[in-house]
Amino acid sequence: MNLAARLLGRRRRLLTVLLSQSRPKHFSESRWASINQATSLSRNAMDSVSGSFASLSINPVAHINHPETSSPATWRDALDANASSPNYQLIKTLVFKPKTAKSAAPVPVVVIARDETETNSSALGKHLNLKELRLAAEDLLAEFFHLDKNSLSPLALNQSTFPKVITVLDSSIVSSSSVFAVHALSSNSTIFLSGKDIAAYVKHLESDDHKVQEVDFSTLATSSTVPTATKQAPKEDAKIEGAVQIAIGVKKEVDFPGWYTNVLIKADMLDYYSVSGCYILKPWSYSIWEEITQWFNAHIKELGVQNSYFPMFVSQKVLEREKDHIEGFSPEVAWVTRAGSSDLEEPIAIRPTSETAMYPYYAKWIKSHRDLPLKLNQWNSVVRWEFKNPQPFLRTREFLWQEGHTAFLTKTEADTEVRQILDLYRRVYEELLAVPVIPGVKSEKEKFAGGLYTTTVEGFIPTTGRGIQGATSHCLGQNFSRPEMFNIVVEDPNDPTGQGKTYVWQNSWGLSTRTIGVMVMIHGDNQGLVLPPRVANIQVIVVPCGITARTTDEQRATINNACEDLAKTLKKSGIRAQSDLREGYTPGYKFNDWEQKGVPLRLEIGPNDLTKQQTLAVRRDNGAKQPIGLSDIGANVSALLDTIQNDMFTRAKNNYDACLKVVTRWEDFVPQLDNKCAVVVPWCETEECEDAIKERSAKASEPQDERAPSAGAKSLCIPFDQARWGQIASGQRCIACERDARRFALFGRSY
Amino acid sequence: MNLAARLLGRRRRLLTVLLSQSRPKHFSESRWASINQATSLSRNAMDSVSGSFASLSINPVAHINHPETSSPATWRDALDANASSPNYQLIKTLVFKPKTAKSAAPVPVVVIARDETETNSSALGKHLNLKELRLAAEDLLAEFFHLDKNSLSPLALNQSTFPKVITVLDSSIVSSSSVFAVHALSSNSTIFLSGKDIAAYVKHLESDDHKVQEVDFSTLATSSTVPTATKQAPKEDAKIEGAVQIAIGVKKEVDFPGWYTNVLIKADMLDYYSVSGCYILKPWSYSIWEEITQWFNAHIKELGVQNSYFPMFVSQKVLEREKDHIEGFSPEVAWVTRAGSSDLEEPIAIRPTSETAMYPYYAKWIKSHRDLPLKLNQWNSVVRWEFKNPQPFLRTREFLWQEGHTAFLTKTEADTEVRQILDLYRRVYEELLAVPVIPGVKSEKEKFAGGLYTTTVEGFIPTTGRGIQGATSHCLGQNFSRPEMFNIVVEDPNDPTGQGKTYVWQNSWGLSTRTIGVMVMIHGDNQGLVLPPRVANIQVIVVPCGITARTTDEQRATINNACEDLAKTLKKSGIRAQSDLREGYTPGYKFNDWEQKGVPLRLEIGPNDLTKQQTLAVRRDNGAKQPIGLSDIGANVSALLDTIQNDMFTRAKNNYDACLKVVTRWEDFVPQLDNKCAVVVPWCETEECEDAIKERSAKASEPQDERAPSAGAKSLCIPFDQARWGQIASGQRCIACERDARRFALFGRSY
């Protein structure tokens, strides 16, 4: 439901998915033609490569096609999802450009290395005697190789390109017995080669005066960049000494998608899974979902909603009952067609949402107005088999959610509930996750397929300047209850003739694990995750400090016991506290570890603290430190956690507000979007105008993928709180057309 | 996991599933031959029927094949699962035998009626002037029609059989415009015919002196069985007056399977679903599952287990990694092969259990003994696409469960946890559900596929004399961690050389919604469900009584308010209480309603109770009534609920104990099974002997379906509490062979 808007059928683009038709393990020259199906350019290039392979007796371990990849992580994902993939290591192919005089043509440096090899550019520049190596821009790649960076591989080197570049080969590849994955000149195609074969391919291009440079990056790094002092006293055990680099490694403001996945992995929230587009929710993220479910369950039960469970399977006949509705979902429905070794008589769908699965039973169960209201909810997972750009929590093929489905006698009751539920969604975001949202109603274009109207809470990611739909609460009206649909009808008790019938008024509403992704994006920083105390599995971590080589066993025990006692005391006050008494890890390592995982508050206890009967409190959200006395510690820490929760929300709210710009002239619209803002505009609310705004605000260079952060702006919602933006003046025109403006609407680029 | 034993691959029989290859909507005579594929007998008979159809111009609406059916409920289930089924009503075909002199040959009465028509046999006998009509035994059906009762239909009447029987046709069929389902002489095949065509078929068999008797059963029932008084004062609204028959209608001790499904439906626990073998868990049953999950979650978290969520999909490669293991599951794995309109490159399985899906990540995450123990649990649903005999809660294609997967450094730790978890399972059954179980270890034959050993809690259904596996906790040993499997290995911190490696010790354990089915079977009675207070969604229902036509509005309000206040008071004491102030329903109707739903305690308040400041308490479990003063009502009701909980357990325990027979001579073994008991026997514990026992104890007449309640006895467990059965004497022989007995084992027929 909260993902529904982007699923609307009428706005779908054709999904073109390249799935390999054959998955041969061994190759003959004659088979290459049938295998290379990517672009005609890369097909010709691959024909040439395969010719070389044949003459060099290179026999790839495997060659597979897969969905397009845009990073090492998605590449790995795609390979792991394919049963034909052998065990492999990724090869990265980087192109650097040295600083040259403006008039001189640059000679690019092509580095072929294991993905995990650290290819320090300054050390490499020093080694090659080249100034200021920088990663080359895409246009240089296009110019030299006619490829984008995601398709680049050692195979891009050929008789034509090799002489124009300096080629550097990671020497650890040459000597390795591993199998390596290289792109077959396309990001959706991968060949698996031995290290020897990669070296053989590259070296067959050598001439007498132009050779491949083999470089041992491990010694290169040491010899050129590491201070001598460190070399003299090598760490015994990196983990123990805290010397391991456990920071996030990618800056939030520089590479947001890379930062996001790194935070999730390093905070132990999630792991990639062998089925593409699916992810493992580890306890650190699942516990947040548990907090949300408990809170939400308690509140909907107060409203008289009951939990239930409907099967995950839906028969084709039932699924396809409501045409508008199914049109929104059908391209991504997963079908079971076989059980054991038997083909099923009819394919059976896995639910993408449960309206059509549930409502035949509503028709059966609701026989009288006395059976109303019927309010059922279920916590389950649904499947929407998206083919592109999976993103943890935001866009996954299976996701966890709740879906509520209610039926009422009157529209008034349905309207009231839509807003009650929406307010619970707002509170989940604002009170639990400290994420500000703007409640409002969706435009006609963006409403739920088959419904009457959709309400939403809209979040915003300031780092990318994009809006994100938080959760949606739909009034379905009588669209599903009407006689030609599910025919959910009762005698109208208010009809004086006693003959009147009423088709019930229905709502549906859903909140998914997307909540967790939004929270991470809003609060996380370059140290990793930052958790709001309300949903943190561990709210307080107690770390013993000041233990040195001279500390006696007894002193150590005293400090450890004090930490343990402190954690116990806090637990008694209802605080989720834990002490970290792990042996063999430095305090520094532990600090990093828990910061990365976003624990809201760290309490340190060392010998001096014990003497003073205090602990040093360090906040994760702003790094502020303060000593707190151990007496009445429970109440003080509780209060501090509340402060953190409130401060996190206030900070996020201020950031959101700073990105909200009231714009009344079209000339200011796109500049504000480009300025990473959302705009509040007087709007006519017509679909035609929304289409036009989207087109006029799109950046020409960005791809128009509905699912990817969209380039054109769309209406995020028409906020309920109109008064906040003043009043639409009489005669005020729409921001984008000649019609009269009706209300202020929130527009923005979005996820 | 708790369902695992019956899934063991080596004990599988071949599943023969009749799925129709063609699903024509219209028929020509020439197509009958290809359609009728059941038995050769019914095929010949159907050839003859289709010949008649052709000559009578009867054109069936549809004809489908489906899994075998054994009752109207399973038939309906099978039809609803088939997309080719039109809207239909079931036809029942009953054969009665009148009382005749022993020497006389009986003339059977064949009744063809709508399934819901009440075909009162005494009224019918009176109408036909036949004495004591009784349902005919199976052998009579075989003799006359060569069919069992599940395959019988109007089509069994032909030129040969029609003259030998009296044929009664429900007149409401003849005049109906509905489409009716009739078996095509086989319980796995159904033809849809109009009422007119059914009548035409039957009537074309008529001769001058042998006619079909059309009977209007609705008037027949009224005219012959309903007392005149009732006719004179017809009820206005059956619902309001409480006159509707809402009792279960089938006796537990007579037709246990029919009773079971009736209780579930009428108690509002469950509804059938349009995909066969799947069921809707309505709030009344789902709330029991919520109670179980909350209790179990709290206890496993104390043990350091963390919740997580793994995707429902498993790649084929991963699923098939462990051969013994997958052999147990593969015949019933559901495969997704298509998404939207695209075929997937590789079919993807829906998890039947998650060992092989999770353990590759265990191998990745467990890098050091410091990462141990790893204890994860997930609450999810799994799919096992069984083709036969679905049974709500006990055997369903999708079911809810938890699956715990843990890894330890040592076998000792793993052993300890296996038993800790098993004891939690025992407590779920005994303390929450008031169902006694016997904890023990499974025999080698019955253990989990791929594991080291399996522990279990075994329940018993006295009504049927069959054991039922409650839940299982497995030690997997190092079978999944060894190098050729998932290679989950750490350096052994206890190895003095520092070189030693240890493959981790693993457990897995699961508890499913089967718990709910067992609870219903144990406690339910002929009034319906009986819920133990600990898991009842509503523990106490407060019903206003003594309101008559002469009651003033004010008196009515006083009584209603008192009920409402009482419910509120009880809620404050932590009791799940509710008042039933529904207008227009009599107290009698409400009593029935809540009894059927199994609410543990009813409190009645009438005018006299108010005067005396008391309420009449009526226990659901034993019907006992007692007045309770309204002062200190919370504590008194709490105590009474505890008493009910304890009494229910004690009663069930006594029933179980009474069915446990220690048997030391083979001659007593089968008679005790036939006596609906389980037997405790000295046993040698060899697989060979278990196979022999099974064979020797099977009833020849019962089908040998592993999934159906099995006819041969199997070992249920080797109880941990051996002392309860005395001591195995030195030199004591096995009950069934010449080997020495090792321990007492529990054997029985089982589900």
UniProtKB/TrEMBL annotation, chains A, B:
What is one GO biological process annotated to this record? Answer: prolyl-tRNA aminoacylation
Q: Which GO terms describe its molecular function?
A: aminoacyl-tRNA deacylase activity; ATP binding; proline-tRNA ligase activity
Ligase is among the record's keywords = yes
The protein's matches in InterPro entries, at most eight in alphabetical order, are given as:
aa-tRNA-synt_IIb, aa-tRNA-synth_II, aa-tRNA-synth_II/BPL/LPL, Anticodon-bd, Anticodon-bd_dom_sf, Pro-tRNA-ligase_IIa, Pro-tRNA-ligase_IIa_arc-type, Pro-tRNA_ligase_II_C
Natural source organism:
Mycena indigotica
The reaction(s) annotated as catalysed by this protein in its Swiss-Prot or TrEMBL entry are:
tRNA(Pro) + L-proline + ATP = L-prolyl-tRNA(Pro) + AMP + diphosphate
Q: Which family does it belong to?
A: Belongs to the class-II aminoacyl-tRNA synthetase family.
Q: Any keyword Ribonucleoprotein?
A: no
Instruction: Supply the HAMAP family for this chain.
Output: Pro_tRNA_synth_type3 (MF_01571)
User: Which EC number(s) are documented for this chain?
Assistant: 6.1.1.15
Ranges for domain Aminoacyl-transfer RNA synthetases class-II family profile: 286-532
Q: Name one GO cellular component term.
A: aminoacyl-tRNA synthetase multienzyme complex
Q: Top EC class per UniProt?
A: ligase
Lineage top rank: taxon: Eukaryota
What name does the UniProt record give this protein? proline--tRNA ligase
